Structure formats: structure tokens, C-alpha cells
């Protein structure tokens, strides 16, 4: 049955998903029309991911109904979803780097289609939608933006009527995001629909026809986002005003607290990025933000600065004027440094362990005396519990019990705890990689304000982020990393989105770069 103007493409009636007694989705109603770009908004833990996983057949609903083109359907697997006419592009890509573009696409299509035909159809479709791809290129050689094109083209080759996009611009330059929006306009003109999940409210205003807002697993409202402001949309999501970040102003900087001098690190794997003569300095009271598209050496830079992978030249990294290139993480923590890695699960936190144990894991070398009086078996005494409680209160970490497992928290709440764990030590130097990745507006505002306040107190802060709005919100200086090379820093007030986007895309700096920045 084809959808008509009088029949919704997708209708969700009272859809509920229980995990034990907890209702991740509680009686959700949703309707998507043909040719509509529909935003799904909500805080971390609001139920967005659970809802789209039910629509795509990854999770089975506990109760409720999904209606497709006027007919009730059961979607028991992603394969069933694709046959129904639903495609999905996840935030984290599922691509094999050693394979070509065409080979990756073939993995989700019928096995009877030849690779040559897949390559031809992918090339044609990618051109038609303004998403140019070389089907014979190896994924390992492609940028993150190009990899996302593969996922979108792979979904489009299955001729879906509805495409679900989860945070699609989080890894894109501004120019790549503009190209994506043009593609979405073409899909809409063809009568296809898009369910668009994003924490970037300016994007939602720009491209979406309607928005449905979830909070605590329930629908709390729907609106035309073009008639709203980012502030009003955020208020609908969190149920209260989201405070804007109070910037650093007229605070004199102090001495250099973090420095990299001609830092070069060879690639550790065939698909990693090598760092090439990276130079940076962060003074007390400053926030240096490093922008860049994912996969350009951000992780390698964090590893080198944090001591996760010490470097051969001891003088290549200096913390508080002391050479630390060959020191590990604990040695750098003892000098007053704190670190927040990009990956929450398994890297910044052990998800199966309670929050108090995760606190001790980050401190047992550098702050043991604060927590231990006697044998190591007494490590979880009152001081640990008190510190855990203090951090949760300071960062508004919402949790199910006094000391739950880290993995039981939503992504945003776990991120607030991890950042708070480092801030609680009042580090002289803090290095943070993607501080608000996948975090809702309220949590992001709290984390960013905490970083600004730390710098205001006299610490040096280095923020690695792909979110340009975030960078402009917190930074005193901005540099851009591309293919393992770091640009010189610019005062935040002298850069535009366009200039940063060009640098992120690999534009080589010239002598006139400052003038180019001023020109915008």
C-alpha cells in the first residue's frame, strides 16, 4: 500500500519499552508524514535511542503499536525494517576499513547482486544526491565525512521511504553539513521522510518541519521548530531554562602550564594518524580549543599529552615547566594534571563498577592519601563515598541509587560524573577530549560552564572538540588540527565558522591567514 496525502507514513501508538520496572519509553505517540523532516528531541536518557531502535527492529516493544502506511506492522529485525522501507544511519559507523566502499555497501544488500553493479549504482546515486563517492576507494583512506556518505548511500540504495539519522553532523565540517542539508532537501522533494535526531538546535530550526520532544520516556510536546528559538527548544527538552555559559573576560593569563614543542608521534597502526611537529602553549587562565574533523589526530594528541602513550623526547611535552614526555598518566597527575578521554565506556569509566570505584581508579596513584588510611582493602571508606556524593551534587549527576554502576547512568550523566571527577581535584592543567559528545543541552551547558570556571580560577584548559558552537562558547584561543598538523592558535574573537571550516578541511595556512580571519 502506497502512502497518500491522507495517510501518515509512520504512526506510533502508545509504544512502551520496559527494562525490568524502568520504562525507557512510556506510551509514546508519534506521527510522521510523507515528505517530512521530523526532529526527535530530548535530553540524554529521554528515550530517543530506545524509540528508534524499536522502529528499526533492534529492540522489541513491550506494548503499543507501529503503523506503517496505515497498516499495523511488527518489525523484528533491521532486515525487516529495511524490507518495510525504513533505513537508519547510526551515529557510530559500522564500516570495515580494509574493504572498499562498494564492498562495505554490498554487506547490507542481497548477496545475488554483483559487486560491479553495486559499484555502478552507488556511484550514480551518490552523484545524484550530491554525495560523491569513489566506490573503489578503501574506507581507511577516506575522511569521516566521506565515511558518513557511505552509510547514507548504503541506506538509499535500499530505496527507503523513511531514513532515521542519529546525530548526523557531529563529525562534519560546516561545509559538509551544508551539503548534507542539500541532500535532505532532495529526499524531501522526492516524498521521502527523515527522522532527525540532533542536539544542535540551530540545525533543527533550519531544516526540520516538525519536532517531537521526549522527556523521561514520555512525549512532552510537539512544535514547528521554525517558530521556536534554540532557548525555547532547550526549555521544552529539559523542562527549565538552560543557562548560557558565562564567558571568561578580562582575566589576565599567567605562566605557561602546558606546552608541546615539536611533538611528533608516528602512527601506531596502519589506519592511525601521525602527529607532525605539533606546537602549543596554554597559560593559566586560558582555554585553548582544538577544532577538527574526527580522525585527524585528535586521539593521538590526547594520548601524547595525557601520557597514555609516552613519547621518546622528554622535552616534547611539558607540564608546569617540567619535561614529561616519557612520564605516564600517573606521573603527570602527580604534577597536577587531569584528563578526560573521548570514550566514556571502558576508557574513562569501567561500566560494571560503581561510581565510587571509578573515582578511586582515577586517583589511586596521585591522591591515595586522601582516601586510604590503612590497608588497601579499606580503600572504599567514607572519604570515597563523600567525594562521590560531592561530585554528583556539584555536576547534577542523576542516578538511580546512592552509588550505582557507571554503566547504569545515561551517557550525559556519566559524562558529567567523569568531568566532575577531574574538576574535584582542582587540576592546574585539564585536557578534555570531546567534553559534551552526545550530551543534551542542559548537561552540555553545565560541563562547559565548569570548564570556564576552572580556567577562571587560574588553571590551564585544553579542549579538543568537533563542536564548533562549543568551541566558540568556551575558548579564549582556537587552533585547528588536520592530518596530524596543528595550526597556529588564533584569538577566538578573530575566527569565523567559515575560516575554521576551511582549516578543518585541510586548507594550508599562508602568511595572510590572520588577514583572512579578520576579513570575516
From TrEMBL:
| GO MF term (any one) | ATP hydrolysis activity
The answer to whether the entry has keyword Glycosyltransferase is: no
Q: Which GO terms describe its cellular component?
A: plasma membrane
What keywords were assigned to this record? ATP-binding, Cell membrane, Membrane, Nucleotide-binding, Repeat, Sugar transport, Translocase, Transport
Query: InterPro entries, alphabetically?
Result: AAA+_ATPase (IPR003593), ABC_carbohydrate_import_ATPase (IPR050107), ABC_transporter-like_ATP-bd (IPR003439), ABC_transporter-like_CS (IPR017871), P-loop_NTPase (IPR027417)
Keyword check for Membrane: yes
Q: Which SMART domains match?
A: AAA
Family stated for the protein in its record? Belongs to the ABC transporter superfamily.
Name under which the protein is recorded: Simple sugar transport system ATP-binding protein
